[in-house]
Design a protein that fits this description.
heterodimer; A: alpha+beta; 2 domains; four-stranded antiparallel sheet; 15 helices; B: about 300 residues; alpha/beta; Rossmann fold; six-stranded mixed sheet; 10 helices; 14 strands; elongated
Chain lengths: ~350, ~300
């Protein structure tokens, strides 16, 4: 019974190399194939649906462009509404905003929460592979696969929303969306994949912290919504210093941050002018063209105010910065995801209870 | 002296404001089936979780298998841990559990595992969640043994089992012990089962090791004295009395003494059994006198002190 050779065991320790990473490939696939396949099926079905809708949308768009490019067409004015009304529930992109977080929460939160909830971590973390390497070998491949699936899926979205954000569409009055429109910006480019990635990372960390699947999913949804709201409201406008111009012809595709007026180099008002100023200089109200959505274009206001020494200033993000913004947002979301995953692994490593 | 499979000094573990383990010093030598016995909340599971590398101690140090830090890759490699309630992926088949464990470990004896499950009549295709409690425990034990560990740690392995499954389970453990020389540390409430299998006893109470030693040594070092109740107090100061129980006429004193020690006139000395000994200590959480077998190798006697 006491015949164990301990000295041999010690020598063996010195050359004890970690088990190769590829051992975890089967483990990760076997344990997470259900969510992975579900996500693939879900995104595939959604892509087919959007493709079918997109064929109609592109058809309507082609007709609208044809109508509005010939200046005499009587059909043009109605076309903007027709385009917006075609699969109108999709047109502003808001309905798809939840897709990244649903994928992330569904696939990310259970990875650790289920182990902790059912107690199987006591099996998994006492095997020879080692717990932090086990965690890394699960989270990183899952994150990469989900982000890749989301990236492929967003190609369909890129195509679908082309009519709404195409450079010429605003000029023709067919749409008021800029490429930075909150509902569309993160569905296109690398945004969709990046947001899916960060949702997964939030889910994994929430699962580790909360240790129960359903509360972790709920927490992921809440945290993601807060992050997305904060980014859209405050962070994204500040990625690059806006262009400031006194030119009244700001392109329709630009993302206008603010407008204000000066007289003699001094600030007078921002937004809508004081009533006494309107009564004095524009008694008939601002004239001029009306843009999509019935909003008065500020050129009308400028016509009556400019002769009296007022200057209109506009700060905006030009549409040409779309990809710069995409890379900035994608970049920091990637860094944030890496940090969240690193924090999760660190917690697994030092978890006391 | 043979190396220790578990060696802890000054070990403490705090959950919030309560200490599950406190100033715990213990050394479990190799080549035993060591039983960890104690009431609920004594710190048995905490001690095993720390030894298995699952939980990090708040204070003190633990090494396993002759000096490997608990939880280190070398320690994980040599210890197979079967946790309480034998957690398992319920949606994985027995075959998948084998495959999983093989992937996660340096050594895995697949033919042994398959043969053992075959003998036990556990179908490889069946999902772990559909196995009976006894089969799940046997599957968990098979996974652990197929890793060819040097130390097998079992936390309450018999809690969920009926008497037959319990018997089969312990028979499997004993067979593995005899065949491979694997050391075993297990915790249990079931004193009667332990008497048959354990040859090393560690009694725990209130987060401390109260008594530890080879069962034969412990039994040899204790005597039950029976004599007139009126004289009991006279000897209480002079002998190492662990526990006194008084009847109307007779008193029973459990004392630390060897067979050679003189017996007071008018008193009779009996040897004690493991269950009897354990029960006395469990009822008497802080006996005043505790020299002797509990001493860990090269360590002080702090484990005998119960701090409030």
């Amino acid at each position: 019974m006491t015949a164990l050779t301990v000295s041999a065991g010690r020598e063996e320790d010195a050359s004890l190399r970690p088990l190769p990473w590829q051992r975890m490939a089967w483990v990760t696939w076997r344990q997470h194939r259900t969510p992975l396949v579900s996500v693939a099926v879900f995104l595939g079905a959604l892509a087919v649906g959007i493709w079918v809708a997109g064929r109609t949308t592109h058809h309507v768009y082609a007709a609208a462009v044809a109508a509005c490019e010939s200046r005499n067409s009587l059909a043009c004015p109605g076309m903007a509404n027709t385009l917006l009304g075609t699969y109108g529930f999709l047109s502003n992109g808001f309905i798809l905003q939840g897709v990244p977080v649903l994928i992330g929460a569904f696939a990310g939160a259970p990875v650790l929460a289920r182990e902790l909830e059912t107690g199987t971590f006591r099996y998994a973390w006492t095997q020879g592979f080692g717990r932090w390497r086990w965690t890394l070998a699960k989270l990183v491949p899952l994150a990469v696969m989900l982000a890749a699936a989301a990236g492929v899926f967003s190609l369909v979205l890129d195509w679908y929303y082309q009519p709404y954000v195409a450079e010429g569409s605003q000029a023709l009055g067919l749409t008021a969306y800029t490429p930075f429109f909150p509902g569309l910006f993160d569905l296109r480019g690398i945004g969709f994949a990046a947001w899916t990635l960060v949702a997964f990372a939030i889910g994994a960390l929430a699962g580790m912290l909360i240790r129960r699947v359903v509360p972790a999913i709920v927490a992921t949804l809440v945290a993601y919504a807060a992050l997305a709201f904060a980014v859209g409201s405050w962070l994204r406008p500040a990625y690059m210093a806006p262009v400031v111009t006194s030119n009244l012809n700001v392109p329709g595709s630009a993302w206008v941050m603010s407008q204000w007026w000066t007289k003699g180099g001094r600030f007078t008002f921002a937004g809508s002018p004081p009533q006494n100023l309107l009564n004095k200089y524009c008694p008939n109200g601002p004239a001029g063209p009306v843009g999509p959505g019935g909003m008065p274009k500020t050129t009308g206001l400028a016509e009556c105010l400019t002769p009296h020494g007022y200057t209109q200033w506009t700060s905006y993000q030009p549409a040409s910065r779309f990809w710069a913004f995409q890379w900035i947002e994608g970049g920091w979301l990637l860094v944030l995801s890496a940090l969240l995953i690193a924090a999760t692994i660190w917690l697994v490593r030092r978890r006391a209870a | 002296m043979s190396p220790n499979v578990v060696e802890a000094s000054g070990l403490g573990k705090r959950y919030g404001s309560t200490w599950a383990l406190r100033e715990c010093t213990v050394a479990i030598p190799e080549g035993h089936v060591a039983a960890l016995v104690g009431p609920n909340g004594a710190g048995k599971t905490t001690l095993l979780n720390i030894a298995a590398g699952l939980v990090a101690p708040s204070a003190g140090e633990v090494t396993v298998l002759g000096g490997r830090p608990a939880g280190s890759p070398a320690a994980l490699d040599g210890i197979a841990f079967v946790a309480q309630d034998t957690p398992m992926y319920k949606n994985l088949s027995a075959r998948d559990m084998l495959h999983l464990t093989r992937n996660l470990n340096r050594r895995f004896d697949q033919p042994y595992a398959e043969a053992r499950l075959g003998e036990l009549g556990i179908p490889l295709k069946r999902k772990a969640g559909k196995l009976s409690g006894g089969q799940q425990a046997q599957l968990a034990l098979t996974l652990a043994l197929a890793r060819r560990p040097r130390l097998l740690v079992l936390d309450e392995p018999m809690a969920m089992l009926d008497p037959i499954a319990r018997h089969d389970f312990m028979a499997s453990v004993m067979t593995a012990m005899a065949a491979d020389g694997v050391s075993v540390v297990l915790s249990s409430h079931v004193l009667a089962e332990l008497e048959r299998v354990a040859d090393y006893l560690i009694l725990m109470s209130r987060g401390c090791v109260q008594l530890a030693g080879e069962v034969d040594d412990l039994l040899a070092a204790h005597r039950m004295l029976t004599g007139p109740a009126a004289e009991a107090d006279r000897y209480a100061g002079r002998l190492s009395v662990v526990h006194t129980s008084r009847g109307e006429a007779q008193a029973h004193l459990l004392i630390r003494a060897s067979a050679d020690d003189p017996v007071p006139p008018g008193w009779e000395a009996h040897t004690v059994g493991l269950e009897e000994l354990a029960l006395v200590y469990l009822r008497e959480p802080a006996p005043a006198v505790l020299p002797g077998p509990a001493r860990a190798r090269g360590q002080n006697n702090q484990q005998t002190e119960v701090t409030k």
